[in-house]
Amino acid sequence: MQISIKHILLVLFLIANYCCIGTFAQSNIQLDSLIRASTLEIYENPDKAIAVGKSIFEDPKNTTKQKIRGLTLMSDGYSSKRNYQKSLETVLKAKQIANKIDDDLLKIRIVSKLAAQYQQLKIYDKAIAFLDESEALCLSFPVRDSVQFLLGNNYVIRGFIYKEQLNCDIAINYFQKGIKEYQKIDGSLMNANLSITYYNIGNCYILMANHAAAKKSFTESISIAHQINAKSLEGFSLKGLAEVYTLEGRYNEAIKKLDEALVVSKNVGDLVLNQGIYKGLSENYLAINEWEKYRNYHLDYLQTQLQVKESERKSISNSLDKSFANHHLILEESIPNYYYGIITSILICIVIVIIFIFNTIKVKKSNLNLEKLINNLQKSKSNPL
Hints:
Layout: H1 5-40, H2 46-58, H3 64-80, H4 84-98, H5 104-120, H6 124-140, H7 144-165, H8 168-182, H9 188-207, H10 211-227, H11 231-247, H12 251-264, H13 271-287, H14 291-382
Helix pairs in contact: 1-2, 1-3, 2-3, 3-4, 4-5, 5-6, 5-7, 6-7, 7-8, 7-9, 8-9, 9-10, 9-11, 10-11, 11-12, 11-13, 12-13, 13-14
């Protein structure tokens, strides 16, 4: 049997196509692994997550969807650093790109992220609006497994808002609904969210003076955070548990938990967490009359508080500088248009005046001719032949 050149070319094409698909799939798998690993770094090393997200977004070889994933990773990193304004700007950029492609799941993710951003910025009306949109999209999505995580986030974010605006009973109900959705999924990211949710439930129980339930929630949060080596989450939950012991008057046990939190979070660099730990240690040492340690930790607390305020000031200053630069740019762009508008208006006015003068002269000339005609007619009547 003879093999034609056509058959050879077809075989070569199929081989090349298979190789390309294999390479593309491998590239996708590598990128997925990189994003997954970087997502787990968000709480411990947000700067690294931001750098990875930026490199994914700026790589011209990546697809539009991959670039959007890079932006959302950056947004999460900024959020972890509590730079919520920058986080919102990044996710809005992702939304702008996502609107140009046909991917319902990606759009749900972006809407969910916007809800979280507005919740963190305490713009609750917008957060609720995006949460309602996201929930409706999730519930109508044909593959429920694909949106389980997003639905869990939706309920937990509602819990944060209702804790602030309504009461802890309603908030806990939504936190529990979020936990039920998370528990249907496996993975370290789910565990991180579970730890955060249990920590917030613990805070709610503190406000409700239900110390037994608070301790149970904080202990669950600590256990999950420890399993996935999430140091900052473990530190926050240890601090929460210590707060319950302080309220119960068990000051030495509170100090022990705060010391653990200090050790666990020493390389995390979370100023808000450190501030809370130092405040707790100073208050508990004051309660047991350990004046020297009280003074040392109170000083640490004040210094960290100053660093937090300075960080917030810089963030606000940067935001104002950017806003000023944007307005200046808009003004610079508007000035030529403004001058063009004035010149155009003047020219139009001149043209209108010229037309008016021309028409006036024409009318006057027409009137004169008409008067002459009338006079001639009158003369002809008075002098008949």
